[in-house]
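Please check these two lines:
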Amino acid sequence: MRALTKMTLPLALCLSSTAAAQSSASAPSLELPVNAPGMAELQAVSPALANYTENLVVGEVWDREGLSPRDRSVVTVAALISRNQSVEMPQHFRRALDNGVTASELSEIITHLAFYSGWPNAMSAVAVASDVFEERSIKPDQLPAVSPELLQLDKEAEAKRQAFVDDKFGEVSPGVVHYTTEALFLDLWLRPALEPRDRSLVTVSALIAAGKVEQVPFHLNKAMDNGLTRGQTQEVLTQLAFYSGWPNVFSALPVVKEVFAQREG
């Protein structure tokens, strides 16, 4: 039986490959869009969605007080990368640059989210950013250094974090615990291309957008320690409702409420 399996499996793969090739040869090609649809396309498919996009999202949400256009771009870019929604990336990468996010900061956001959203998501963002950087004549010398002088480490806070993680998970996955310390908190989080407050803003936005509320308390507290205000956090949630969906934001609301209460208590 084992030998038969070894003989028939490659045959099955060959047959399925042949069938797929024949199917693809006869079927019309379907190319996924590489850019977000324009207003004319929206009107042709969903006039109501076009109206919401133009008058509610663009015409109202992006102009709300409490969070700068730059920060709204940071939140939105983080949400798109964390959800691997590459169709909207080109316009929002351009908008981020227009709103004051530097090329260096955008590059570092992608680097940071490789760790928090996964390498494949970051690679999708790189493919889009490459074209945007080329059209804006952004050169490598405008981007973060590979090995910069790192920011100063809060040794007391890091010691507490290490002790907690080691105690909880040291025997579950020593490799994860090792790289959490060495790659993330002793390297990535100390890179100067993003201000600590902005790095935390990126992380919180990505976690909420991806529905990973379990880690929001630690990172929201870190964000607020780094200068993110309660009012700004409230507007981050509002922005994310439109760019990651109401369910993800409503899942985060009780967690954020608890963080607010603990910090005020």
In short: The two ends are 67 Å apart (CA to CA). Residues 76 and 217 are 20 Å apart (CA to CA). The mean pLDDT is 90. The first helix runs from residue 2 to 26.
